[in-house]
Amino acid sequence: MTNTKRYLFCIPALICCSMLCCFFSCNQQQKKQTTDVEKLSDSALLDIVQQQTIKYFTEGAEPVSGMARERFHADDNYPQNDKHIITSGGSGFGVMCLLVAMERKFITREEGVRRLEKIVQFLETADRFHGTWPHWWNGETGKVKPFSKKDDGGDLVETSFMLQGLLCARQYLKDGTDTEKTLAQRMDKLWREVEFDWYRNGQNVLYWHWSPNYNWEMNFPVRGYNECLIMYVLAAASPTHGVPAEVYHEGWAENGKIKFPHTALGYPLQLRYQGNPQNGAPLFWSQYSFLGLNPNVLKDRYADYWQENVNHSLINYTWCVQNPKQYKGYGKNNWGLTSSYSVKGYAGHAPNPDSDLGVISPTAALSSFPYTPAQSMAAMRYWYNDKKDKLWGPFGFYDAFSETDNWYPVHYLAIDQGPIPVMIENYRTGLLWKLFMSCPEVQDGLNKLGFDYPGKN
Questions:
Q1: Total-model pTM
Q2: How high is the pLDDT of residue 21?
Q3: C-beta atoms surrounding 80 within 10 Å
Q4: Which pLDDT does position 24 carry in this prediction?
Q5: What is the 3-state secondary structure (H, E, C) of the chain?
Q6: Which parts of the chain register pLDDT below 50?
Q7: Which pLDDT does position 28 carry in this prediction?
Q8: For 61, phi and psi rounded to 5 degrees?
Q9: In this predicted model, what pLDDT tens digit does every residue of 42-73 receive, in sequence order?
Q10: CA 27 → CA 20, 22, 31, 77, distances in Å?
């Protein structure tokens, strides 16, 4: 055999050998990457999820106001030309995320202070209505963007979510540098200017909305139980525009009608959830008010809020494990129903026959870390290890997905991303709980309403 023939004869063998080497090399590399991910400690994985999610409020912030954009789509960025539409409640959660980022050194303290200064500057000059901010603004102009036709004024619930963040930030900065002390004082002034008493509309209840154009026509008195407990606590706590305890007991608690002891999926609940859902509500009800308000040892004449929130979360988890509607993928490591994007529009997913649509929202389980640490960790590891290619993007886990419908939108909502780093941090260190509960006014408000709470004298 000539040398040429030998060479030609060897080419297929060489190609085959090369392909096999490449296959085994790639396979080994893939196995190594998988092993590396699986070997991540719980602490390291929590760091990754917190840091990536907080980028929504740093890299993704609206540049003029520094506030959180209402939404972001990783495929087309800003749907319906709402690139400049920012949200008050979601930005309040974002303020708390900045404190987590500073404390964990994801960003420098100086960068965090600069970002907070920009936010405060915007809040001082943007549209307000009796001290209360709207749900949405145009971030470039500070002018209100109506949430609906008659919802073009103050939104007391979203304002309360913002104040929860500002009070945490005030406490974080108040003993710092001269710049930080001045910024804390400006935050305090914003808090004192909110006219909670105006939003009574002359009654012993708080109203969600007021409009300079439609007055009280939205007609939404806020009665419990839902996500709005923080609003009543802050209204009682306000040193300048506070409301008496009767507003809480007669309005929110409806003279005791809020109490409704019952059992759902084997877990006792103490409260009547608004609308009387059979197995509790979307999980954000046990999260939004408790980003700063510490539910540990928190009790009043109506409920033990720690036990209520733990059981509310366990009911949600148990429903997904039992999976009575037989949706694809539900299980011990794939659970969590809350309000989020849905296959069709937006929906309040919950563990009830009519409101479980086969859509899992990662924020539901991840923001439940203080209540269900083992179950939340299992879900986080599964999504990060096994579903990362479909569920993970520039700002952490996407908002929602459905295996049943093979639906994996690359969408984010500020009000869903914000609670994730905050509640993970409360699980790890209690940072935001400590800051918020250290406010003397908050303690005064809780005392006024008859609460027991951590550290009460």
A1: 0.92
A2: 45
A3: 8
A4: 47
A5: CCHHHHHHHHHHHHHHHHHHHHHHHHHHHHHHHHHHHHHCCHHHHHHHHHHHHHHHHCCCCCCCCCCCECEEECCCECHHHCCCEEEHHHHHHHHHHHHHHHHCCCCCHHHHHHHHHHHHHHHHHCCCECCECCCEEECCCCCECCCCCCCCCEEHHHHHHHHHHHHHHHHHHCCCCHHHHHHHHHHHHHHHCCCCCHHHCCCCCCECEEECCCECCCCCECCCCCCCHHHHHHHHHCCCCCCCHHHHHHHHCHHHCCEEEEEECCEEEEECCCCCCCCCCCHHHHCHHHCCCCCCCCECCCCEHHHHHHHHHHHHHHHHHHCCCCCCCCECCECCCCEEECCCCEEECCCCCCCCCCCECHHHHHCCCCCCHHHHHHHHHHHHHHCHHHHEECCEECCCEECCCCECCCEEEHHHHCHHHHHHHHHHCCHHHHHHHCCHHHHHHHHHHCCECCCCC
A6: 1-24, 26, 32, 34
A7: 58
A8: -65, 150
A9: 999 999 999 999 999 999 999 999 999 999 99
A10: 10, 8, 6, 35
Copy the structure tokens of residue 353. 């026959």
pLDDT of residue 124: 98
Question: Exposed, middle or buried, 430 (CB in 10 Å: 0-12/13-18/19+)?
Answer: middle
- For residues 169 and 193, is the Cβ–Cβ distance under 8 A? no
CB 136 within 8 A of CB 119: no
Which residue bears the tokens 């690139």?
83
Amino acid in the structure at residue 198: W
**Tens digit of pLDDT for each residue in 141-165?**
999 999 999 999 999 999 999 999 9
- Contacts for 159 with CB less than 8 Å, ≥ 6 apart: 88, 89, 132, 133, 194
Which pair of structure tokens corresponds to residue 196?
């909670």
Fill in the amino acid letter for 47. Answer: D
pLDDT at 98: 99
Q: CA geometry: angle at 368 spanning 283 and 325, to 5°?
A: 50
Contact call for residues 314 and 357 (beta carbons, < 8 A): no
Distance CA 390, CA 387 (A): 6
Average model confidence (pLDDT) across the chain: 93
Backbone angles phi, psi at 85, to 5 degrees: -85, 120
Q: Per-residue pLDDT tens for 262-300?
A: 999 999 999 999 999 989 999 999 999 999 999 999 999
Residue 82, pLDDT score: 82
